[in-house]
Design a protein that fits this description.
678 residues; 71% helix; elongated; mRNA binding; single chain; repeat; mainly alpha; Pentatricopeptide repeat-containing protein
């Protein structure tokens, strides 16, 4: 490619200046039926005395160029200059644009000389127009030469010039240079249009891997792919016979919480006819993973409406999400629909539905499914048994759980660590620690290594059975064996048990752990000790622990504040309770119904009823719905303070809002009527 000989005048005047785009004057004052009207007006203007301003001439030239009469605009410019009208930078930019469009780049560069001769300064539009002209006329090396000179001389440019050059490089099959330019460190950051231009060319030329790499870099830069990006990628991948890669791309967006981008990609796949059942399943799973089950359900119905046949994976994905959000009946409906439509559930589908039933304590229905699965000829696996064993342990029916455990072994299945953990926790829950310990021994005999969950369940069971000294010895063994070493949960279980015995023992143990075992307490650890101090009316020690926790950069949670506020109220230190309440809001810890009820009760006890009612109004304003406990506190307080009318109004308000009085409310009302609550 021949280098264009750039005018000598051009480069020396590329000084270190910041070029501002100068907007073209508005043409809104002129309306033309066609080119003849515009030319006629221009001729009338050049014959006027005095001559109109250059701005008016430039407006008309701009409109003629928009009509694409480039040669005519050049001719009229010559006439205007002959008449003595002094042009300015915008006029020259129009002239350069005209020469570029008719392929006369030499003349375009000669205009640069005129700009400098007339004492004007080229602006960013000037250079953008020249570079665009060079790109249109396939003179990319010259365009790059100007760009490089601008960079070297630190002349600022905007994203329009940058995008123009990238677009020109891509159109002239110089994709690698475009990529280098795109990824180079520049003050102007590439935008989605620039990336899309390069990605499109790469996909079109079969360089799909480079396109994907560039797309990844774009995302790292914080630029989200749009419909044009996806369209190019789908085209490139499908053309290369990589349809699986399209699905991988879809799945990647779903797994990275970019479901909206995944949906755009999926819609394009449908438009191009490149979708399949797997694509539907991937997007549906993406919706479910991001807690957008409503959209997953719509996609499922859209799929059926389009005549697509959902497969076992489709049903299982949606059923699983329904089960996790306690919508098991809807999961069961899907299960039944699946069978009606001729799709046979597999072991995974059955187990997911069983898990859903167990989560809401409907274990017998899970058991029926378990037997139904066997009747259909499906062989339960360890996971299926574990789900059911856990369900029975959760509702403290450990004998049924034990039967299932042994039934699993009889079927030739080998219980795993989870099987033992579930059973051990079940026994510990009902304080049958001896049987839990027997299971631990059985684990060792079968070369199964207990994990931290196993050990914490046993420590908890020993503590709940009152065997705290045994629990401490067990934890010491864990510490010295190191398989597994105790964690913060282990020590918190011990702290909680020691607090229930004597808070001093818990505090001593806590200090020894920090000193001897480099124990790093968490918020729960401090909550346990603060609660123990408050229960023993040792509020100052509780406050010291609270301050110590904050000093260690541990953020108090709602439980911490509720414990302390309750402790302050019980010790008649209401001002400190209110200060803590205000501190919560300052630290973005949102008070819950428990917080409000504690404060309301304290205000009622000291007969500050007006403040209590004011607090209730504030609570409602914060969208924290009062519960029956709230109303019982207020009604009791109002009656005790001799304000039965206000109490009745609150009772009526309670009824209107759908809170039907409970036994406690009725008892309070009746006692108050009889004058027994003074």
């Amino acid at each position: 490619m021949q280098f264009l000989k750039l005018p000598r005048l051009l480069m020396p005047h590329m000084r270190r200046i910041h070029l501002h785009s100068q907007p073209l004057p508005s043409e809104s004052t002129y309306r033309f039926c066609g080119i003849d009207d515009a030319v006629a007006l221009f001729h009338r203007m050049v014959d006027m005395h005095p001559l109109p301003s250059i701005v008016e001439f430039t407006k008309i030239l701009g409109m003629i160029v928009k009509m694409k009469y480039y040669a005519k605009a050049i001719h009229l410019y010559t006439l205007m200059e002959y008449k003595g009208v002094v042009p300015f930078t915008v006029t020259f930019n129009i002239l350069i644009n005209c020469f570029c469009h008719i392929g006369r780049m030499g003349f375009a560069f000669s205009v640069m000389g005129k700009i400098l001769k007339w004492g004007c300064q080229p602006n960013v539009v000037t250079f953008t127009t020249l570079i665009r002209g060079l790109c249109i006329n396939d003179k990319m090396r010259d365009a790059l030469h100007i760009y490089n000179e601008m960079v070297a001389r630190r002349i600022s440019f905007d994203d329009v010039l940058y995008g123009t050059l990238i677009n020109g490089l891509c159109k002239n099959k110089m994709g690698n240079t475009a990529i280098q330019l795109l990824l180079a460190e520049q003050k102007v950051k590439p935008n989605i249009v620039m990336y899309n231009t390069v990605i499109h060319v790469l996909c079109k030329d079969g360089h799909i891997n480079e396109a994907r790499v560039l797309c990844s870099k774009m995302i790292v830069q914080g630029i989200c792919p749009d419909i044009f990006t996806f369209s190019s990628l789908i085209y490139g991948l499908c053309r290369a016979g990589q349809r699986k890669e399209v699905r991988s791309l879809l799945n990647g967006y779903c797994l990275n919480n970019k479901v909206d981008e995944a949906r755009e990609l999926f819609n394009l796949m449908i438009e191009r006819g490149e979708h399949d059942i797997i694509s539907y399943n991937i997007l549906m799973n993406g919706y479910c993973l991001n807690n957008r089950v409503g959209e997953a359900k719509k996609l499922f119905h859209r799929m059926i409406e389009r005549g697509e046949q959902p497969d076992i994976t489709t049903y299982t994905i949606l059923m699983h999400r329904y089960c996790l959000i306690d919508r098991v009946d809807e999961a069961r409906e899907l299960f039944n629909l699946m069978i009606e439509r001729g799709e046979q559930p597999d072991i995974t589908t059955y187990t997911i539905l069983m898990h859903g039933y167990c989560l809401i304590d409907r274990v017998e229905e899970a058991r029926k499914l378990f037997h139904g699965m066997i009747e259909r000829g499906l062989v339960p696996d360890v996971w299926s048994y574990n789900i059911l064993i856990k369900g029975y342990c959760k509702i403290e029916r450990v004998e049924e759980a034990r039967e299932l455990f042994h039934g699993m072994i009889k079927r030739g299945l080998v219980p795993d660590v989870w099987s033992y953990n579930i059973s051990i926790k079940g026994y510990c829950k009902i304080e049958r620690v001896g049987e839990a310990m027997s299971l631990l021994e059985d684990m060792y005999l079968k070369n199964l290594i207990p994990n931290i969950i196993t050990c914490n369940s046993l420590v908890d069971g020993l503590c709940k059975s009152g065997e705290i000294s045994h629990a401490r010895k067990f934890v010491d063994k864990m510490h010295y064996w190191g398989q597994p070493p105790p964690d913060v949960t282990t020590y918190n279980i011990l702290l909680e048990s020691l607090c229930s015995e004597h808070v001093d023992k818990a505090i001593t143990f806590f200090k020894r752990l920090i000193f001897e075992r480099s124990f790093a307490p968490n918020v729960w650890s401090y909550n346990i000790l603060i609660s123990g101090c408050c229960k023993n009316r040792r509020l100052d020690e509780a406050m010291n622990l609270f301050n110590q926790m904050c000093f260690k950069n541990l953020v108090p949670d709602i439980m911490t504040y509720n414990i302390l506020i309750s402790g302050c109220c019980k010790n008649r230190r209401l001002d400190e309770a209110v200060n803590l309440f205000n501190q919560m809001r300052f630290k973005n810890v949102v008070p819950d119904i428990v917080t409000y009820n504690i404060l309301l009760d304290a205000l009622c006890n000291v007969k500050q009823l007006d403040k209590a009612i004011e607090l209730l109004k504030y609570q409602i304003d914060q969208d924290i719905s009062p519960n029956l406990r709230t109303y019982n506190i207020l009604i009791n307080g109002l009656h005790k303070s001799g304000r039965p009318k206000t109490a009745r109004k609150i009772s009526q308000y309670l009824f209107i809002r759908g809170y039907h009085p409970d036994v406690q409310t009725y008892i309070i009302n009746e006692l108050c009527k009889g004058g027994f609550l003074e």
